[in-house]
## 1
Amino acid sequence: MQSAPITYLDHAAATPVANFVVAAMQPYLTDQFYNPSSPYAPAIRVRHDYETAKAEIAAVLGVKPDELVMTAGATESINLIITSVSGHVVTSSIEHQAVLAAAATHEHTFVQPDANGSINPESITQALRPDTVLVSIALANNELGTIQSLKDIAMALEAERERRRIAHEPMPLYFHTDASQCAGLLDLHVSRLGVDALTLNAGKVYGPKQVGLLWAANYVRLQPVVVGGGQERGIRSGTENVAGTIGFAKALTVADQHRKAEAARLHQLRDTLRARLEQAFPWAVISGNPKKQLPNFLHISFPGLDAERLLFALETMGVLVATGSACAANKGTRSHVLTAIGMPPEVADGSLRISLGKLTDQAAVDRAADCIISVVRAESQRVGNL
Amino acid sequence: MQSAPITYLDHAAATPVANFVVAAMQPYLTDQFYNPSSPYAPAIRVRHDYETAKAEIAAVLGVKPDELVMTAGATESINLIITSVSGHVVTSSIEHQAVLAAAATHEHTFVQPDANGSINPESITQALRPDTVLVSIALANNELGTIQSLKDIAMALEAERERRRIAHEPMPLYFHTDASQCAGLLDLHVSRLGVDALTLNAGKVYGPKQVGLLWAANYVRLQPVVVGGGQERGIRSGTENVAGTIGFAKALTVADQHRKAEAARLHQLRDTLRARLEQAFPWAVISGNPKKQLPNFLHISFPGLDAERLLFALETMGVLVATGSACAANKGTRSHVLTAIGMPPEVADGSLRISLGKLTDQAAVDRAADCIISVVRAESQRVGNL
């Protein structure tokens, strides 16, 4: 049935593990399989290689290796930071389900984005309470690709911290970001982002699934979600994922080295695709923030059409795109992100999320444009939209 | 420095991923990398293969696939079942740190084993309270290799359940076991074990690290430790570890198929090793339950000697053994298991845990025996023990 070659345009949902990453991991599955907590030299070498991998990751973030906690993906990382704090949590209504669900276990305020999916720092300031302990805003939204002005939000939080200092209020205020969609595309240096804690996911950057991390500055007191043998400084027990962490380090460092060139390449490909679709369908709605947008993201809506029908028609031609985030079990419900930015239902229901990546070249973009134009035209005629 | 060929006798700490397991995983890292929650056919095939792997695991346990929750290892699995319940928890003082630490977050009673590390069902009965909700006892102890009579404990619990039924007390009473050390050695069929919940770990059975599972019968109400996208029936959010689960299924099913022959092979090798060491050192102390012992475990103590010195001397000869569990960050402290069975400190401090496995053959056992005999003789002479 699936005879067409695959044109994969859903890198935001999952990325293939790069061959050099598989090659880096493999020795730690087979020959160097030792438990890094064992006391003999071959295990100590494994421990050393594990710590070296953490140091490589730390260098990309500009942090200390012992401030990293390796987790089984971004969701656990997000849960770890949010369940570690006691107090009011501020986040936005367009965050990943993991942030929304973990924040819902606290007193919380969900700030609303603007129509582009941007979070106004002023709206964060308004949501702050004297007992607010954590603000969590993703560096880039995982449906729209809108990049947030974390530095401006950080300044707003610094003003509140200064108020608390003067008022002798001891309540800390931490700033966390999920940067999972941004590795290999944006600068992840935490001091330039202005955050106190950061989540990353190897599975979005050509590393293995179920590998992620939480960085938290040493003044953020973490509380373990999982207790036991005391690994990861007691914050996250369980035998370490040596192969996964080494694969993550390789994937992240290589992606970061090529970040500027790859971002520029994807930016140009994305703009080509967008231009072709805009030309063919002037009535289509492009969402996100045109001035602050992930270079590999294109969110486009065809009002009056059914995105699922488009998706399946495209799939028969080998073109794989998304209607929204893959990270939700409740399929068939309307995206909470599109609802939050005030998109009318008839627009939201005709929305495609197209995300480019390493598998995307000019031929892929040309092919995708041809197929999308053909499918949208056919669907438009079918429903009498044209 | 490490020029001798390695004789690995610490399979209880970690096992190499079998080559056929790596081969089974690899396609799901690279070509079949799709997010199993994505809606297009290639992702649906990945979802199908993931579910098939869970069904293969379920068949080994004799359970329904949708009663399995895949986790990042045994520690998370143990935390998931213990944090899911509200009430008094009964476990033993020789359990894995993950059980002890998670139980410590509840009201709890730690029952004491006998000198062989066996848990008397009567001691469990005595520890039960009207508000006891969970009993957790490992199928085999991870330091001594003592196999517990779970069926007898299950009968004791059934008597308490019957009492509660008659008294119209609604408090449930669940029985959980960590069987991580037993895959590929013992029958894991849960109805024959008599448990309501079971933990397994791929990393102990020639599968990948950081892959585990919790089976819980459908009448056990689990509470998520990690919230988010709602994967694993809402119990454990996060993009599924497709490659890891497929590797786990392959490792477990193959190990279970060869279980009887492999257990017999290891039993004979272990007995050969034990006989040689007993002959050379009649004063050595063999621990565990000789009638109910994992076939690959040998726990031997050399009173008056320092196990760490033995371990490092053996390491220079390429023989890798353990002094205790690798799963604890606090090295250099005396094993809580040996303390609990009442072993005097001067015996405990001279203890080696030797665990055989796929990497062990007759030549390895002969070599290990030669080396251990030589090292123990030298150390004994050094300290004037002989």
## 2
Amino acid sequence: MKKQQITNLKGFRDFLPKEKRARNFVVEKIVEIFETYGFQPIETPTLEAGELLKGKYGEEADKLLYSFKDRGDRDVALRYDQTVPTARIVTQYKNELPKYFRRYQIQNVYRAEKPQKGRFREFTQCDIDIFGSTSFLTDAEILACAYGSYKNVGFKNVEILINDREVLFSNLEKYATEKVSVMSIIQSIDKLDKMSEEAIVKELVAKGLKEPTAKEALKNIQNAPQTEILEKTIKAAKKLGIDESSLIFNPTLARGLDYYNSIIWEVVIPEYKVGSVGGGGRYDNLLNELIGEDIPATGMAFGFDRIVEAAIEQNLIPQKNMSTTVLVAIVDEAGFDKSMEVAKNIRKKGIKTEVYMNEDDKLGKQFKYADQNNFKYVVLVGGEEAAKNVAKVKFMDSGKEKEVQLNQIGEYFSGLTDE
Amino acid sequence: MKKQQITNLKGFRDFLPKEKRARNFVVEKIVEIFETYGFQPIETPTLEAGELLKGKYGEEADKLLYSFKDRGDRDVALRYDQTVPTARIVTQYKNELPKYFRRYQIQNVYRAEKPQKGRFREFTQCDIDIFGSTSFLTDAEILACAYGSYKNVGFKNVEILINDREVLFSNLEKYATEKVSVMSIIQSIDKLDKMSEEAIVKELVAKGLKEPTAKEALKNIQNAPQTEILEKTIKAAKKLGIDESSLIFNPTLARGLDYYNSIIWEVVIPEYKVGSVGGGGRYDNLLNELIGEDIPATGMAFGFDRIVEAAIEQNLIPQKNMSTTVLVAIVDEAGFDKSMEVAKNIRKKGIKTEVYMNEDDKLGKQFKYADQNNFKYVVLVGGEEAAKNVAKVKFMDSGKEKEVQLNQIGEYFSGLTDE
């Protein structure tokens, strides 16, 4: 057949082993913590009925929905987020799920966005949520779980900025005018992490506030006290495991505010400058709006791609995850059977081992392959070694060699501290 | 909003925690072995260019492809299998991948099949393959890895039936007539696992063979000797770890034969009666046919849904994977802070722990929740316990209680052998 030059579609990514392993590592580390917090995994289909997803994300988002007619002329659409399918799940299986339901979900979503740096048409969402309770305890559990998850990936510094939308409304309402709504004031003030105070004041004045009012509003919100619910949540979350200095009240944090109704938060890794690596809040009314079921909820989304990027930046992905450790060379016919057994016995210890894949290649070629693919050790059992019941272990970094008894080979490798 | 009654689409499945956990368990166990064999993970996009997938799977399959025009009027299609996207990968990234490339891939595929028992429109494929080598060593590695994977899930009995398509052709060619091709004879004989010998002979006679010829053909193939490549592969695979009696030469195994060109095999769990749980073979010419790149390959597909089903049937999914272990009750205000710390300290030991999610509920309600959701232990720290620096641990199965020192609570739970 003629050679095809077809590549992946624009906006879609292939993950080769190195990147896929980094992603797997992050999933493994955060899921480990999700599980200790009692979160339970679910999975929903990639395709849903079009009528479930359409009109749920606002007009702009509807345009980004991958929807089409299937062969049965049904209107279907690719998963756009995990919230709407989960809203369906907690309604459809209400009688099978716990009254208070903690779930985690890590699946891909699809959005027909214009491809650009850091924006993809298929990307992984990673959410934890608790359904069925309005208690501040659930917010505290989510916060502590999130903190533990980031820490478990290996990040030294993790900061969670927290606010209550009530703080914003109760402190800013009085500055609203007929022309400038409280929402509009909040939207300007939310930009404090990117803009200077002067610029914010300027923007508010441009919107129609008087300068002294704008300045007072800003000062007022910056010095706003915590609400009772914030105090309780923060205290409980710290007792549950968040370091004292890592959970920070930020009265100007707004997070779009579209569907949150109480506590909101954002997670920041200070050394990672691209932006926040997660965020969430309480959304007691959303499930009713989405699906007509009155179920309170709180939860958060982990910015999966950013977490992976930050973890790579900070060298948190263990190198032993990245390549195969041992190459068992094929030396000669006389050593062949014992070479196979050596591979078996090293693998029994959980050590990544390949048997070289072409018995006709000379040893030089086999070492070249080991070198190019970052193997740490090459194990050789030729007829000579087989007769002595030993294997020759070659250290690829130093070039040193060591003879190991065949019946000790597994133990030998599991004892090498750098594996 | 009015309540919506939208459910999942026909042919698509929701996985609630119990089932999702069983699936995760199987993935974890087989991936553990894939990794020790040096297989590396990759991931490809859900959507591919329509022209990559169309015409690749035969006319019938093309009808099952989920394809549509995206908003940019591009012809796109949902992943139909993992082989074609991987063929694209090994071509597109040829210079970045090892010369001999072992990869595993576990992703969902989409087929617009008529929904029926055991057949779904979205299902998980799980493949291991080695690209770039024609050596029998690669077949042996795949076989041993597969065997180890099934064993690692916990199956006691795993049988791999193996054949070489050469066995079929060289032993049956002589019985072919103008009317009855060797392929047609093979197709009949391949049914030996479902039909009696008499029925096979009858079918061959109906096709046009004389009865003595049909009988002789059947007898001949049943007694056919192994080819040299079979002997070498089987010997190496056993040395690599397959039990002597578990790798069985079956000269009538044909596996459709569509694109395999040498060794083929099928995996059976004898106690599981639905059918084989995996299979594969060498397909040195397929990548050339698919994508015009001359790369030899061998590999296999694990029947993921069946493996999960068989594992559940055989009670292989550990119960501790299935529910959260400890519920920390909310007793009173005075014990609240210490209750949070208790949750923190039990979780530190990796034990699944929930803090009860409504501080207003009476203890009776909290115990009911623990009971309904299969918690093993409820931990209580009220003011009374807090003052004594103890926690009360209630065993849900026996109703017994035990007092544990607060500073020992983590160790206490990690010492409970049944966790």
